């Protein structure tokens, strides 16, 4: 796979920064790189405009300066929000939501393990009662992570009741953190989105919801924004999880999501292994992004 | 904000400005092309594809064919449409079946693209066509993917070959290879191999996919891709083309609100046709992909053909004729209406149907708010009536209405509204059935060769069975009711269910003459007609 480098943003940028001076081509390349990184046309225009102003203000022609400025700009924009997870309540209830196939279940498995590494006791609620074999899938992950699991008592049980039982289980057994899996749903399905609202409402009868994590697939394009808006409206999202960052996608759209919605990125997933989940660090993220 | 509203909406906006002009200056063309570029980028079409596309459109738009045309603006629309179709693959392609059974179809794609679900849909679709498909569980990676395929296979009523438990145990290449022998033995005529999701950059996994391909020598390799994917679509598609050299593409999750981009990029970059489109979570939400329809959809010309086909599938032709006759003779009763509604529900989601109508882009928001349960509530009211009452609504006096309201869990006002609206609708239908022209909004102002041909098909079909206008009216009714009340319960929603019928008469008659359309409705109607 010799092409691998040319996919990544850093590949696209390398040619640009290797040159001696900044010229029109540099700006074109920068624009291209940002657009292909899924930053979206609006953010791209902003960043390019912003950098043009800076470059002319500092009167520099060295691409190295431009590279540094790009990094600073991105870092600054990414680090505006606080990425720490707030899991102080006991039990701390974490609801995981997202569209189909973004990696919610896998993320839960990794997250349970992640918390286990900090010696937290975890129970996972398999409230995806819709998709075929989803319960088994999350159960397998829970087992790998050494977490408890609450399964639906019958097939097709109301997800809200599974969520309720999970929280109940956590309270009864003094488990610190309850993570609740939900079925994937496209943000355009009104009925399913209402279901999320209901799940949340039902949980809150027992304990406040500490975090609602929206899982976003890094390969998603500008639709990620629409996803975020819809889930924020219906489920009150408090943090974003970015998955599949081990692929070739750059997930630039999250910048727009974070800025537009004010919801910070909290976790990132970079592989199928159980330990491939880390907290979000703007510095590292930008470093990986632009190389 | 620019990012909100999708490709159809954006292009529609662009063209609205263009249509009002009699002549195109180069500046107009440039402005339009810029808008198209932005719209396509917002829709996640890959940058290279966008550049290419806008280049072609600009060149042709500045050429002679446009200036000689009677209406240059329409000509540009036509050009964009043609270019879109050209990229999306021209003619629709079907699956190539092997001369000697079994036909082997392999599925490949990123994680979470929807391969396993698609395998079930494809199997069910093939089974309906009198094939005997066999699903092969060669995704041994993801936890419980094998179980998922088994459940899906059970739902689709087809056999599943799953010798290995999965969860990392077993060799997918061997499973795939053995499945062919098994299929020949047991005489299955199509083998569908579900593989694990893999990233384009994962060399090992791509190698494995290539090995599976070699082992089963498939007649079709379908690359399954999520319609929501962004700029990475190109890199991923290229990687899979290099890895497994797929022969066709399946676009999934088209029922979301991201729809144009990936299709355009992948088709354009790989030159492989998109064969199927997957549009929902039910195993029946699956259809062949029609490039021209997709282009029309992107251009917001609606997807009338699919709509007609779906409606025809569910609509009993005989029944439709009977209904048309009833309209004419003024003997259409609430009972017939109930029957129609139930048929409609058989046709699938109303929302989906409305979404395919031209101009529906403008109403997408209302559509989203529409609660399909409204239909159920209306049904409940009708079902709470006696047979005599359904046939003769004039019987309904006060006490009967109270009884019906109680029986259906609605209020008397709701019942009143339903009856009133029904009468208006029936009256309107009568005019339609007697030869009034029930135009489809949005069809008028867009000529253009490709589309004109279809335009002719439409009225013919309608002439033969005028059940269609009725259906359309009901849909519009449903839409309007949704618009009034975003999913609320109680008295308000009851009003909506009844109300729906009335505005159906308005929208159905296309002039908004009947019923008492609210301001919001009028506005949406006008939007409808402007196209």
From TrEMBL, chain A:
One of its GO terms (cellular component) is cytoplasm. GO terms for molecular function: GTP binding; GTPase activity; signal recognition particle binding. One of its GO terms (biological process) is SRP-dependent cotranslational protein targeting to membrane. SMART domains: AAA, SRP54, SRP54_N. Signal peptide: none annotated. Residues 90-267 form the AAA+ ATPase domain. Residues 91-291 form the SRP54-type proteins GTP-binding domain. It catalyses: GTP + H2O = GDP + phosphate + H(+). Keywords: Cell membrane, Cytoplasm, GTP-binding, Hydrolase, Membrane, Nucleotide-binding, Receptor. Involved in targeting and insertion of nascent membrane proteins into the cytoplasmic membrane. Acts as a receptor for the complex formed by the signal recognition particle (SRP) and the ribosome-nascent chain (RNC). This is Signal recognition particle receptor FtsY. It comes from Subtercola vilae.
TrEMBL record, chain B:
SUPFAM superfamilies: P-loop containing nucleoside triphosphate hydrolases (SSF52540), Signal peptide-binding domain (SSF47446). It catalyses: GTP + H2O = GDP + phosphate + H(+). The keyword Cytoplasm applies. SMART domains: AAA, SRP54, SRP54_N. It comes from Subtercola vilae. Gene3D superfamilies: P-loop containing nucleotide triphosphate hydrolases, Signal recognition particle SRP54, nucleotide-binding domain, Signal recognition particle, SRP54 subunit, M-domain. It is an enzyme of class 3 (hydrolase). Residues 273-286 form the SRP54-type proteins GTP-binding domain. Residues 489-515 have a biased composition (Gly residues). One of its GO terms (cellular component) is signal recognition particle. GO terms for molecular function: 7S RNA binding; GTP binding; GTPase activity. Its EC number is 3.6.5.4. Its main location: cytoplasm. This is Signal recognition particle protein. InterPro entries: AAA+_ATPase (IPR003593), P-loop_NTPase (IPR027417), Signal_recog_part_SRP54_M_sf (IPR036891), Signal_recog_particl_SRP54_hlx (IPR013822), Signal_recog_particle_SRP54_M (IPR004125), SRP (IPR004780), SRP54 (IPR022941), SRP54_GTPase_dom (IPR000897). GTP binds at residues 109-116, 194-198, 252-255. Belongs to the GTP-binding SRP family. SRP54 subfamily. Keywords: Cytoplasm, GTP-binding, Hydrolase, Nucleotide-binding, Ribonucleoprotein, RNA-binding, Signal recognition particle.
């Amino acid at each position: 796979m010799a092409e691998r480098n040319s996919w990544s943003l850093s590949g696209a940028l390398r040619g640009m920064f290797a040159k001696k001076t900044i010229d029109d081509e540099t700006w074109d390349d920068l624009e291209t790189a940002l657009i292909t990184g899924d930053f979206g046309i609006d953010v791209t225009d902003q960043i390019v405009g912003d950098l043009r102003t800076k470059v002319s203000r500092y009167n520099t022609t060295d691409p190295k300066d431009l590279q540094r400025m790009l990094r600073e700009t991105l870092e600054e924009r990414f680090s505006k929000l606080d990425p720490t997870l707030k899991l102080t309540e006991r039990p701390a209830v974490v609801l995981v939501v997202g569209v189909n196939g973004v990696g919610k279940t896998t993320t839960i498995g990794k997250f349970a393990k992640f918390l286990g590494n900090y010696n937290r006791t975890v129970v996972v609620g398999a409230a995806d009662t819709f998709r075929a074999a989803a319960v088994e899938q999350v159960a397998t992950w829970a087992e790998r992570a050494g977490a408890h699991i609450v399964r639906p008592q019958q097939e097709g049980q109301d997800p809200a009741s599974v969520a309720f039982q999970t929280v109940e289980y956590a309270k009864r057994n003094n488990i610190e953190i309850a993570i609740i899996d939900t079925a994937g749903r496209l943000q355009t399905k009104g009925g399913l989105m209402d279901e999320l609202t209901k799940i949340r409402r039902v949980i809150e009868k027992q304990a406040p919801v500490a975090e609602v994590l929206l899982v976003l697939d890094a390969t998603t394009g500008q639709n990620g924004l629409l996803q975020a808006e819809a889930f924020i409206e219906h489920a009150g999202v408090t943090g974003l999880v970015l998955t599949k960052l081990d692929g070739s996608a750059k997930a630039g759209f999250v910048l727009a999501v974070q800025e537009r919605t004010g919801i910070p990125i909290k976790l990132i997933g970079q592989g199928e292994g159980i330990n491939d989940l880390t907290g979000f660090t703007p510095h590292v993220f930008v470093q990986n992004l632009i190389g | 904000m620019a990012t909100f509203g999708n490709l159809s909406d954006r292009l529609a906006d662009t063209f609205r400005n263009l249509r009002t002009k009699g002549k195109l200056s180069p500046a107009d063309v440039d402005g339009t092309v810029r808008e198209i570029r932005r719209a396509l980028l917002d829709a996640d079409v890959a940058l290279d594809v966008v550049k290419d596309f806008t280049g072609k459109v600009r060149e042709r738009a500045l050429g002679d064919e446009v200036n000689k045309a009677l209406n240059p603006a329409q000509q540009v629309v036509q050009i964009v449409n043609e270019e879109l179709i050209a990229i999306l693959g021209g003619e629709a392609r079907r699956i190539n079946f092997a001369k000697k059974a079994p036909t082997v179809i392999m599925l490949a794609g990123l994680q979470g693209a929807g391969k396993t679900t698609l395998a079930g849909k494809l199997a069910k679709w093939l089974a309906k066509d009198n094939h005997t498909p066999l699903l092969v569980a060669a995704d041994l990676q993801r936890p419980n993917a094998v179980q998922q395929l088994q459940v899906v296979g059970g739902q689709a009523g087809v056999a599943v070959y799953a010798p290995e438990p999965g969860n990392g145990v077993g060799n997918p290449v061997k499973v795939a290879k053995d499945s062919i022998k098994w299929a020949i033995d047991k005489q299955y005529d199509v083998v569908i191999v579900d593989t694990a999701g893999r990233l384009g950059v994962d060399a090992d996994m791509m190698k494995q996919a290539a090995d599976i391909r070699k082992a089963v020598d498939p007649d079709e390799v379908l690359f399954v891709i999520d319609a929501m994917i962004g700029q990475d679509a190109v890199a991923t598609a290229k990687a899979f083309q290099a890895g497994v050299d797929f022969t066709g593409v399946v676009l999934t999750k088209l029922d979301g609100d991201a729809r144009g981009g990936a299709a355009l990029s992948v088709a354009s970059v790989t030159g492989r046709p998109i064969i199927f489109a997957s549009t929902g979570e039910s195993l029946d939400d699956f259809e062949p992909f029609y490039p021209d329809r997709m282009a029309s959809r992107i251009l917001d010309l609606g997807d009338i053909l699919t709509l007609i086909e779906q409606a025809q599938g569910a609509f009993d032709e005989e029944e439709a004729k009977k209904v048309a006759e009833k309209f004419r003779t003024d003997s259409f009763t609430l009972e017939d209406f109930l029957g129609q509604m139930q048929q409609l529900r058989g046709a699938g989601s109303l929302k989906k149907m409305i979404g395919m109508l031209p101009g529906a882009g403008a109403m997408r928001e209302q559509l989203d708010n529409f609660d399909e349960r409204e239909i159920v509530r209306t049904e409940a009211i009708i079902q709470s009536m006696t047979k005599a009452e359904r046939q003769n609504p004039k019987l309904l006096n006060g006490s009967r209405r109270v009884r019906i309201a109680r029986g259906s869990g609605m209020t008397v006002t709701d019942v009143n509204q339903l009856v009133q609206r029904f009468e208006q609708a029936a009256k309107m239908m009568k005019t339609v059935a007697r030869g009034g022209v029930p135009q489809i909004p949005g069809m008028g102002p867009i000529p253009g060769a490709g589309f004109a041909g279809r335009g002719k098909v439409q009225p013919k079909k309608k002439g033969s069975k005028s059940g269609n206008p009725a259906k359309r009216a009901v849909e519009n009714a449903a839409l309007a009711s949704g618009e009034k009340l975003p999913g609320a319960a109680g008295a308000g929603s009851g009003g909506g269910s009844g109300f729906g019928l009335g505005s159906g008469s308005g929208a159905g008659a296309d002039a908004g003459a009947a019923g008492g359309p609210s301001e919001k409705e009028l506005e949406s109607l006008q939007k409808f007609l402007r196209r």
